[in-house]
Amino acid sequence: MGVTEKSIQAMQGLPFDNLIGGPLNACVKAQADAAQTTLNFINDVGLNHVIDEKTGQETKEAIYVYFSFVQGGRKAVMSVPLLTIVPIPYICINTIDINFKATITGVESSSYTNELSVQKDVESNSTIKKGIFRRKTTNLKTTVSSKRDSKSTRDSSFSIESTIDVSVHASQDSMPAGMAKVLEMLGSSMDLLDPNGELSVNETEFYVKPSEKAKLVAQYKSPMGVFMPKEIKCGNLQGKVNQSDGTVTFELTKGNYDVIVGDGLTHKILVKVSELVETPAPAGGK
């Protein structure tokens, strides 16, 4: 197997799922954490949690901030929803760049050894004669050995470099359509308030026929900018409350009336009966 094939085989063993999928999963989790951070910010900074005493259910109310200033020589108060004047964090991951380069370093070594050994025995005899009946014999035995060794070594190495670079680009994202609509509605709720509250009536003088009653429509806006129709009093009369616009309608006969809210706001109402009766127009329009 060549070096190239071995390198490819080693590359296939790398955990690409973790190397590439890990950064992607981390970015997805970071985006989810950013969304949760936005939700927590809105709940903790911009909303009040109120428990309904009758139902026991929790409702959320927008927090308003109030600025007092002088306008036209009189003190005025402006109410502004807090969420409309503070930046809401909307962090979004725009792009994710993953640059991957692998590094694999391998060394392969192989060796071969050949060994040859040869051994040979050599034997020799010799006889020496001295005089009559005297003989001396000598035997020699010699061993000759030969050994030959051969050894070869082959080394091969290969190297592949691998690195992974992750570049994440995030920015303040555009506001979701739903939240933009909520802020638009909250922005339209900005109001200029009287620090003492406002009591208004449709008329202070009424002229009615003897058989008719005057209809007085009163409206009270508290210093917090909330319509409170039940706070309006007109003598011992029972008024009809309209919850849609926060008004109270009283039916009045001839006389003088005081429309009161608390101890400070009062309107004097006068109802007069007119004895004049309209004369029918002549026939033919003349």
What's the structural blueprint in terms of helices and strands?
Blueprint: H1 3-12, H2 16-46, E1 47-51, E2 58-62, E3 64-71, E4 74-81, E5 91-129, E6 135-172, H3 177-188, E7 191-193, E8 198-201, E9 205-208, E10 214-221, E11 232-234, E12 240-242, E13 247-252, E14 255-261, E15 265-273
Parallel strand pairs: 9-15
Antiparallel strand pairs: 1-2, 3-4, 4-7, 5-6, 8-10, 10-13, 11-14, 12-13, 14-15
Quick take:
With 286 residues, the protein is an alpha+beta fold.
Polypeptide structure, described:
With 286 residues, the chain is an alpha+beta fold. The protein has three domains: 3-101 and 163-188, no CATH class; 110-154, no CATH class; 196-273, Immunoglobulins (Immunoglobulin-like). It has three helices and 15 strands. It has helices spanning 3-12, 16-46, 177-188; strands at residues 47-51, 58-62, 64-71, 74-81, 91-129, 135-172, 191-193, 198-201, 205-208, 214-221, 232-234, 240-242, 247-252, 255-261, 265-273. The strands form five sheets. It has a four-stranded antiparallel beta sheet with strand order 8-10-13-12, with no helix packed on it. It starts with a helix and ends in a 13-residue tail after the last strand.
